[in-house]
Amino acid sequence: MKNDRPDDMPAEGHASLMRGRKFTAQELALMVLALLQQGPRHGYEIIKELKSASLGFYSPSPGALYPVLGQMVQQGHALVEAEGKRKCYRLSDSGRRYLESQAQAVQLIFTRLRHAAKKMLWISQNMDPEAATQATGWLPEFVEARRAMRSALFVRSEADQHEQRRLVDILNRAVAEIEQGAPAPGPAVPAAAKRRDAC
């Protein structure tokens, strides 16, 4: 195996993956709505579930989450009840309708979250390709092929328009062939997000 990092993994590895903003406020709101669809939750529970689902890749800070929750309440997408010093958030009928209208976006966001979790697993096992494959389901050849494609496109970023058109044709054919065998999409929410009726 020429390179044991996933295709979009920077050379700095784990530290670089963990830095930077990973999801927008709107994307976070959609994830929260999807979790609330499973049942009411406290804010800290939402943070824990997203961190667990992504194996530590994404853990929204209270400073990021609570303004989003407040905005969701203002928009009528969520309801809030005080429970002592804590607040319990529930999905409203309006929020349910909005979530249904954004089903494709929600699916994509959680696909990104699961992909990030797999990258975390791959990094943790990067000295043992067999263990990495066992943990993620990714073959080393699959990871290397994606890396090689990314690298090939990167070194041609200054290509003239004639060459760009040639690359577009190649990529479009590859995409069409890949999509012919596309697997069924994964669940729209983390598997660990259990249904319940109360906080």
TrEMBL record:
UniProt superkingdom: Bacteria
Residue intervals of the Transcription regulator PadR N-terminal domain: 32-100
Name used for this protein in its record: PadR family transcriptional regulator
Organism: Pusillimonas noertemannii
